[in-house]
Amino acid sequence: MTPPSSAAPALVPSAHRPHPAKAPLASPLSSRTTRVAVVGAGFIADFHLEILRGTEGVEVIAVCDADLVKAQSAARRHGIPHAVGKLSELAPHAIDVAHVLVPPNLHLAVTRELLELGIGAFVEKPLALSAHDARTLGELAAARGVVLGVNHNAVFHPAFQRLLERLRAGEIGRVEHVRVCLSVPLRQLDAGDFSHWMFREPRNIIFEQCPHPFAQLVELVGGVRVLHTTMLGSRELQPGQLFHERWVVAGRGERGSVELFLHFGAAFTRSTLEVLGSDGSLEADLFHNHSAGESKTLYLDFWNSFLAGWRRGGELRRSARGVLADYLKQTLGLGARQDAFFAGMRGSIRAFHAALRANQPLPADARKGEQVLAWCESATSWITEKAPPTVEIPPPGAARAGEVVVLGGTGFIGKRVLAKLVERGVPFTAVVRRAHALPPFLVEAARRGQARLVRGSLEDSSSLREALRGATCVMQLATGNGPTWESVQRAMVGGTKAVAELALECGVKRFVFASTIAALYLGADAGTRPLQDALDTDPQPDGRSLYARGKIATEQALVELQRSKGLPLVILRPGVVLGRGTALQHSGVGLWVRDNHCVGWGAGDHPLPLVWVDDVAEALVRAALHPTDELHGKALNLCADPGLTAAQVVDEMCRTTGRALRFHPRSLLRSQLMEIGKWLVKRAGRRKDAVFPSYRDLKSRALHVPLACDLARAVLGWRPVEERERFVELAIRSMTLDDTTPNVG
């Protein structure tokens, strides 16, 4: 595929390039504050809001999100006066420009609506999902006289900016070839979150990950001329859901040739860009924020070779010292945040607003967005596979006799719970957030009428009320976590309590809550006797992590409902749950400072309370379907005893994967002293997140106290896998299976 492109512009700073003619803004911004809204309150919104707060001449007026609760939470965190749920509600606030931070499949519709409302847009990459749509948006913005920019933040990566400066200075002559290596892990892939937009169609991964390198290529070689793709590896995430993970893409741009190696879901991170010129080469290590180069000298080959290595080493050492100095300055409060991702975001956002206020050409306008999308389209033009069809969710209808409602049924444990309900022929309702990439067995159960699917969440009371009406049992497996205690209280504690109150309102006969042994205190100073099944939790929750504290508070709220209003409550507390579908880097084993280096919560020489995920699901289903109410008002521990230590678990992972996985024992006292050292540095830098580290939480993470699981065994007849070799095979080796299948194209 060879998309049309214009003549190649000279390699000059983006802000000084010729800009397509467009209608002037309705009013000049140089003499007043730019009024900004943020549309989409997800993960990336916090970066935009933090940067905008320190951007001169900008005032954030509103946050908009279809989930009004999320918009309100973001507005509170960042001190923004307004939170709205619809774009049309931005009109009364006289917004000049909105930052569009919704998923890529919504960029076109949201940006078009904003432009038609007379509101300019600054869109997260990619601008749209086709070059044609990007061009259409650009034409609409020009017709309406409003601004349209795109956040190509990779162009402002510090190492890439240094490379551009040297290139523009003529250090290596004319650009002839650009080579890119992008080898990155994907946490969504590791977590089995196959519903994420980037996995919904085989081409999406390029539109999600590659606007970064393609935006850099546009700066270096202009628009795409011709491109060829060779596929090195693909796999099926779920039946009918294909994922292409390793690519080689090569071809020509307007001003030079290119070659890209792409590996999505890699174990080792590497992100580099090398420019080969007529008189030398320049390299940018984008992951480590290093840069170096080599150019011709007048010396003989032996001395030239020596100088090349010596000078490159010197550049890398200087670059490394700069990275370290920036980190120390930031940590000590002596300088602004300078990590490469944040610096790139800040550079892009501020360059956009500076150009807007000065009525200058934008660093990345609709034309640049169109060029980047042409590269994306060229790289994926060979793909013919279609996305799995989205499941049409019919109206749920009335509950059947014995209906079980499951919240969190598409999670790690939840999928097994639903599968076991299917095996038993139990009618159930699964409350799901989205209908993309649902497990095939669930889709089939829905088609034949065993399963009802209700779209909703913990904070969606109307959908939940519809789902719970007429149900016999509710299984609350949804986590509802968050980055702050406020968000944990709202999502985990408040969300679960609201579900429990709805269950009481609907006359549900049993409420099963999946908690965790993190709600207990398991430090060595708690004694050596097995901890019995009991409702008691850690009596000092304030000294625990946000997750543990949230589970403790949730259990306490449910117990209060049980005692005051008769909630038919059963709490189950799984131990360290292992099995296929969870990442190797399980925090119950230790602190994974890198994906292959695990620091122990202590020496790692005592048996851990491990349990296979399928055994946890079996216990949950047995508790939900148990014929008597003898477990109401009780908490059950769910742990097996395969006799494996943390060090042995890591060794088994190492043997199975062939990777260099290492376990590093470290005393708890040493770990605590190191955490205190970090705290002191943060305090010196006046960091707001400087919370004194809890030794109690650290001690509990070591999981020294054994747990009795008598109720599950005696009342439910639960028999978890405990024979060591079988446990290793089912729970540990299954975590390391590689589904990669070669597919050369």
Could you give a short description of this structure?
This protein is an alpha/beta fold and 745 residues long. It is built from 23 helices and 25 strands.
Report what the structure shows.
- The chain is α/β, with parallel strands linked by helices.
- The protein has three domains: 19-151, Rossmann fold, CATH 3.40.50; 156-336, Dihydrodipicolinate Reductase, domain 2 (2-Layer Sandwich), CATH 3.30.360.10; 404-587 and 609-644 and 705-736, Rossmann fold (3-Layer(aba) Sandwich).
- The strands form five sheets. A seven-stranded mixed β-sheet has the order 8-9-10-7-11-12-13. It has a seven-stranded parallel β-sheet with strand order 16-15-14-17-18-19-24, sandwiched between helices.
- Helix 4 packs antiparallel against helix 12, helix 9 crosses helix 12 (366-380) and helix 13 crosses helix 18 (613-625).
- The longest helix is centred in the middle third of the chain and has 31 residues, at 301-331.
- The radius of gyration is 28 Å and the shape is globular.
- The two termini are 15 Å apart.
- 44% of the residues are buried.
CATH topology of the largest domain: Rossmann fold
CATH superfamily of the largest domain: NAD(P)-binding Rossmann-like Domain
Numbering strands along the chain, what is their spatial order in the largest sheet? 8-9-10-7-11-12-13
CATH class of the largest domain: Alpha Beta
Unreliable sequence segments: 1-27, 738-745
Principal-axes geometry comes out as globular
Number of domains: 3
Count of beta strands: 25
Strand content: 15-25%
Q: Characterize the quaternary organization of these chains.
A: single chain
The biggest beta sheet reads: 7 strands, mixed
Radius of gyration: 28 Å
**Helix proportion of residues, in percent?**
25-40%
Number of helices: 23
What separation lies between the terminal Cα atoms? 15 Å
